[in-house]
What does this fold into?
Amino acid sequence: MQHFDSDYMEGMHPRILEAFERTNMQKTTGYGLDEYSVAAREAVRRACSAPDAEVHFLVGGTQTNATVIKALLRPHEGVIAAATGHIAVHESGAIEASGHKVLTLDHLCGKISAEQVEQYMQQFYADESFEHMVFPGMVYVSLPTEYGTLYTLAELEALAEVCHKWKLHLFVDGARLGYGLAARECDITLADLARLCDAFYIGGTKCGAMFGEAVVMRKGLVPHFFTIIKQQGALLAKGRMLGVQFLTLMSDGLYLDIARHAVVEAQRLKRAFVERGYELYFNSPTNQVFVVLDSIQEERLRLATSFTEWERLDDGRLVVRLATSWATRPEDIDELIASL
Amino acid sequence: MQHFDSDYMEGMHPRILEAFERTNMQKTTGYGLDEYSVAAREAVRRACSAPDAEVHFLVGGTQTNATVIKALLRPHEGVIAAATGHIAVHESGAIEASGHKVLTLDHLCGKISAEQVEQYMQQFYADESFEHMVFPGMVYVSLPTEYGTLYTLAELEALAEVCHKWKLHLFVDGARLGYGLAARECDITLADLARLCDAFYIGGTKCGAMFGEAVVMRKGLVPHFFTIIKQQGALLAKGRMLGVQFLTLMSDGLYLDIARHAVVEAQRLKRAFVERGYELYFNSPTNQVFVVLDSIQEERLRLATSFTEWERLDDGRLVVRLATSWATRPEDIDELIASL
Amino acid sequence: MQHFDSDYMEGMHPRILEAFERTNMQKTTGYGLDEYSVAAREAVRRACSAPDAEVHFLVGGTQTNATVIKALLRPHEGVIAAATGHIAVHESGAIEASGHKVLTLDHLCGKISAEQVEQYMQQFYADESFEHMVFPGMVYVSLPTEYGTLYTLAELEALAEVCHKWKLHLFVDGARLGYGLAARECDITLADLARLCDAFYIGGTKCGAMFGEAVVMRKGLVPHFFTIIKQQGALLAKGRMLGVQFLTLMSDGLYLDIARHAVVEAQRLKRAFVERGYELYFNSPTNQVFVVLDSIQEERLRLATSFTEWERLDDGRLVVRLATSWATRPEDIDELIASL
Amino acid sequence: MQHFDSDYMEGMHPRILEAFERTNMQKTTGYGLDEYSVAAREAVRRACSAPDAEVHFLVGGTQTNATVIKALLRPHEGVIAAATGHIAVHESGAIEASGHKVLTLDHLCGKISAEQVEQYMQQFYADESFEHMVFPGMVYVSLPTEYGTLYTLAELEALAEVCHKWKLHLFVDGARLGYGLAARECDITLADLARLCDAFYIGGTKCGAMFGEAVVMRKGLVPHFFTIIKQQGALLAKGRMLGVQFLTLMSDGLYLDIARHAVVEAQRLKRAFVERGYELYFNSPTNQVFVVLDSIQEERLRLATSFTEWERLDDGRLVVRLATSWATRPEDIDELIASL
It folds into this structure.
């Protein structure tokens, strides 16, 4: 029996575990002021070709989204997101709990476009009563999206441009960023993100770390962000645990290497589904595979592996998601393919 | 030049002004503990055939919505509303500012149905990750809706039933309640509202008062609601001003009388539009008239009166709203009709 | 039996009532965009010798405090106030409900000093863990204070200077501002307030209006404050009611005239207390009189008038507050004095 | 050069590291639904002799305080705490950010008493305007306190009783609970806490874990606390990391063993300070030592070790804190003592 429910089922990449072992009995100061965190921040800046960027390490994705969005928005502002965005659906109202509305746009395979934002802004200011409404203050997109799809560099640049035009912050949720950057179709780099976004984060939890997200922010964007992190309960006391992890991930190209491995295996699995006549629900180029199962296929796949149930279609078929990770063994994919 | 932009353009009903004059130099305690407020609360209870109900007077509609919803929801809960609901669109994010998400349903002429709520709840609990989502804790509807439409008693009873089944609070925004109750098509009474809802309010601001909304709540529903009102900045120091107004409105059937007048005039206007070949956008039986104007009609109407621009349709036609009020003079309607 | 519990026991000044009567049936747009509100804002600016100031009309004091403070503070910031400040004690946690801590200083007769703020700021930044604490972002003082005492111009200038030095906003709660400005001891003017504060308000509710507070803000201080007002439920639909009131109060010196009357009567009462051997608790130069009553005095005063019980001292004596208002009749003061 | 700044300078106890190694490549479900978390919850229940208690694992202390307090309080309520309490001073306003006021009492060596709470409640309800104030809804105490001091069982029982009387929740912050329970003077057990408190937590971060706090709650106290944890950004995706840690700490008495070691070393250090004529600031029986240093002592100690500067007294002397931990080596204490 295999398990492809998600990309956070295993612990941490062995090199991170090894780094924990190596540093465990050292004494350092807390709250991310230690040497490992300092070095990790520097490594992130280098990887992003952004020597001036601010880097902050937080523990998890929902926490990071809520903290960054709260820090960037003023009271009368909300955040534009795809109706399927993580902040819109799967964070138990964390954004609203910090006082801000999520303003949703229809998505196309999990994505929203610069054109949609442009149209939204034009309609907003054309509305007689816009001063009685929530002002859009930010655009939130995920890379990859909830559906494993990717923005192109041109699309991201267009979003950045429309945000600039309307004075909206651009924030990219990179909880699975590695699996996006490592996709063959992806023409976006960390340097592009640092150049185009006000803030984005490099997801650790789902990409080989035990936990951790590295926020990269335009310098000076949020004075005293450290204190806002603390207020949100997002400041790790033993902050060096985040430094050690990101220093490891950023060394020797590890972050992209392990993501690439997951993507290769996922794409191999995807092709096998297609070859065996399964229908894809989204054609994700990353580490997630979305398949539509009829009842026979469903029964067969349930014997082979666990997965995430995405949605039951009106015709009774089931959409499921399988996710590979940095830890996926090729032989497990082989075995799963054999059972399709 | 006429003005039919809204139903809050004039001051207050003359009998309220007269009551202010009569009581002005009296000394009373503040914060709604005075004799007028006590009597007004009793009058509201009587009008609702709800001797045990709690009655609280607040100043305005957005404030009332935010205060009641905050008081009734627990932190993990949100409020279900039509996508066109006032709380969803035109309150500048007041609900989110108090920490709660507005969960929107598609509307039919401003209304949502018990079936939709039932389906939403079934899908919610059927979703594998519902514990990562915002729990629906309340259903919010408006009577009349933003589009001047009405629920039938059967529809409201069905909503109450589905709310009861799923342990959702039912809250009715009655900012224009008078104009709803006074409509010929309306088969709902104040007593029905008190029986079926956990909380609702009798709108004063738009129905003849200078300001004020009377919240009617199931007894014991919210301990210390007084303090929550205070915290929301919604407690009027000279609270008797609310008591004086609602005591007047609840006396001698004034509230419904003045609403009936507005509805009669609006319906007369509506029929005139139809007779002259204008297209209605919504067929509202209350004090609001929604008309679609082609360019010639638009030009003509702009010469005759001001109105609220609702929406520009893709074909270039303009949807406008005209509203009558307790203060509308029949001769003004005559004059407007003559100019159509 | 007299009533001197507070300064908001009567309705509104007759000239305001008259203005309501005169304008009642006029039609205007809502939300403070009407001609009366425009003129009233201009009148406030003129009275403050602040042609560029922004003026906003809100309904009540707690609401105004919460709205201004929320609008001015960033998430990691709190507001410094006297431990006896209205926001610290008597607003049911309205400031905390908007996410911000009230940082209290010991008071001297309701006042705090520039020296205290200076010391607080020095200690704050000297604390190793200040980044784990709430950053002071604003100083809040009341004029007059809760105890009817006054800042001198020199004291206010010193506060403004220390705020400037440490980049703190200075916000003056003027719920009873008239009674302060009208005191013989007061050397502060509206123009001083406009010059020294980032924001302050001219209280209407307690100074002759039916309700209403006029916020005066440094131009450009809070973009889209209108929308924040709306979000806080503090935007009056029939906004002209605020305009009509403040236009009246700002005309022909009415605001100060009626305050002066109240202060004169209160001081007369205060002197009578002293002459008859009563002990003052605070020597307020404004419209509030604070007296310490032994059991005989208490019994006697209870027969003559109602009042607010302030505090029961350990020795059993009772501190009470009596307040005069714009509506206080000299003969009532005479009668009360006769009964002391 | 030694480092005794705090008890979270090292990584994690070797047996936890070993458990991470042993389980690293296993696949489990996320969010604390895995078998390790299930077993750890059961182990906590057993250790507390509380078979029905709910146990939830969160990441850090500030986060846990904010989440529990938000979940337990209603909107009009605040939390009573010592003025020196962590939530009152060192959480960057996290409690206020969730909408609630911290109501502070004077402390005695970091502690508050049942008598103080009783007096506070009596004065609260005796105040004429208590409905305009924040209602106390909970008492928060720390065991040990910020100053390393301990409540006795009798004191805790008295607090529980007064809370019961006034319908206040009792919540114990146990961020350093192990070091309290392991103190020779402590007569409180985990079972006492489970019996007397509505909620408390067993601190992991400072007591041998890499991170993690185990909340123990009265069954049924907070419906859907899981979702509130998620909303607060406090739900760890790889939740088993918390399960693995607490299962290890709860096995074979490890939690108390490692705490006892730290306490023994701290007390040895404390006695050495006293013997050499240093003055104690607080006589903590736990793992923290508070010493007052004159300038010569300060100079000498700075050469020997780093520490936390607590407070500079008016006479120029410096209060410092030294903390031992599960990882403190006896030879390091020996060396430090030798240098005093």
